[in-house]
Specification:
InterPro entries: NTP_transf_8_dom. It comes from Amantichitinum ursilacus. This is Nucleotidyltransferase-like domain-containing protein. The chain is an alpha+beta fold. It folds into three domains: 1-108, Helix Hairpins (Orthogonal Bundle), CATH 1.10.287; 110-273, no CATH class; 274-336. Helices cover 47% and strands 21% of the residues. The protein is built from twelve helices and 13 strands. The strands form four sheets. Strands 5, 7, 8, 9, 10 and 11 form a six-stranded mixed beta sheet that branches. The protein has a three-stranded antiparallel beta sheet with strand order 2-3-4, with helices on one face. Strand 3 and strand 4 (61-66) form a beta hairpin. Helix 1 packs antiparallel against helix 2 and helix 10 (275-286) crosses helix 12 (327-335). The longest helix is centred in the N-terminal third of the chain and has 38 residues, at 69-106. The two termini are 22 Å apart.
Length: 336
């Protein structure tokens, strides 16, 4: 289907994308299986008895009982299953590398490599359920699900906005996966040159000038707003989220998840907001008094582009179903 906002991806490329996604999903499943066997098991002699000890990755140890048929079976099953899971991860990693090589050769992907790297590090830290990608970069997920490509000028950007869903509490296990260096430490695993801007502690920038902003909702009631944390992990050396109006209803909208492919052919899943919420939000931004005219024109163009994509390729997502968004905004959007 022809559109002034996007063009269809070649059918031959779609086949490679589907194959890549199936391999990637299998690898993620295998990694989760291997993660369930983290730590180790060993036998330890204590006096006249031998005990089976489970040791976690932090050095903590738990006795599973004296050596007998039951604990022998537990030990053997653990060693066997962990070895099988590790072999599966290795085999699928090789298969995915080959898929990614083909993606790069065919020019199938085009998302910035740094964006894909950041998404994968966020997933590995198990923060993907707490952070949403908003702004221009979300359009990579929308076009991927529809099997189209937006015009390059519509997607041009050198930064990414991370919307922190502060309504959800982090567990102790999450804190361990994130580490004491917090979100900045996660970004440094993607690119060690990331550093916080001294005068803007919600922004980190790497040596190439790519910027990552951490933002969160600004609550209507001052007392509730001030009670919320501005940091994912308390640290003098980590991000302090910027509070922005108009994000509460984005968080209340349906989530949207899709695989994107980088310019090097590498894969990552992006968690973002529903494309209908994106289109309405951009329309609202474009009409706000005092909005920079250049940004307003771009907001309007992106709103129209995503609206066209939803209406043509995602008809199962009717705009009439966006009840999380205020009626006044939906009405203004419907009027164009």
């Amino acid at each position: 289907m022809k559109s002034k906002y996007f063009q269809n991806v070649k059918d031959s490329h779609l086949r490679h994308i589907i194959d890549s996604q199936q391999t990637f999903d299998s690898l993620l499943d295998a990694e989760r299986a291997l993660h369930s066997y983290k730590g180790s098991m060993l036998w330890r002699d204590v006096g006249p008895y031998t005990y089976l000890i489970k040791r976690d990755t932090k050095g903590g140890q738990t006795s599973l009982g004296k050596k007998n048929e039951e604990t022998l079976a537990i030990y053997e099953a653990f060693q066997r299953n962990k070895a099988e899971a590790k072999a599966s991860v290795n085999d699928l990693t090789q298969a995915l590398n080959e898929r990614q090589r083909i993606n790069k050769a065919l020019g199938i992907g085009r998302a910035p490599q740094i964006l894909v790297d950041v998404l994968n590090r966020i997933r590995e830290a198990r923060l993907d359920d707490h952070i949403l990608i908003v702004g221009t970069n979300a359009m990579y997920a929308y076009e991927a699900q529809a099997g189209v490509r937006f015009d390059d000028s519509t997607l041009a950007t050198t930064d990414v906005d991370l919307l922190w869903d502060s309504r959800k509490r982090l567990s102790v296990w999450h804190a361990e996966d994130i580490g004491e260096d917090g979100l900045l430490g996660i970004l440094k695993k993607a690119d060690k040159s990331f550093a916080l801007m001294e005068d803007q502690r919600y922004t980190a920038r790497n040596a190439s000038g790519y910027m990552v902003d951490l933002i969160k909702r600004k609550r209507q009631w001052l007392e509730l707003d001030e009670a919320e944390e501005q940091q994912i992990i308390k640290s003098d050396h980590d991000f302090r989220a910027a509070k922005i109006e108009g994000l509460t209803w984005l968080l209340s909208s349906p989530r949207f998840r899709e695989m994107i492919i980088s310019e090097k052919g590498e894969l990552a899943y992006m968690d973002t907001i529903d494309p209908r919420a994106f289109a309405i939000h951009k329309h609202w931004l474009a009409s706000r008094p005092g909005r920079d005219p250049r940004k307003a024109r771009r907001d309007k163009m992106q709103s129209l582009a995503v609206r066209s994509l939803v209406e043509h390729w995602l008809p199962h997502l009717p705009f009439s179903g966006m009840h999380a968004i205020p009626e006044s905004l939906r009405a203004a959007f419907a009027e164009g």
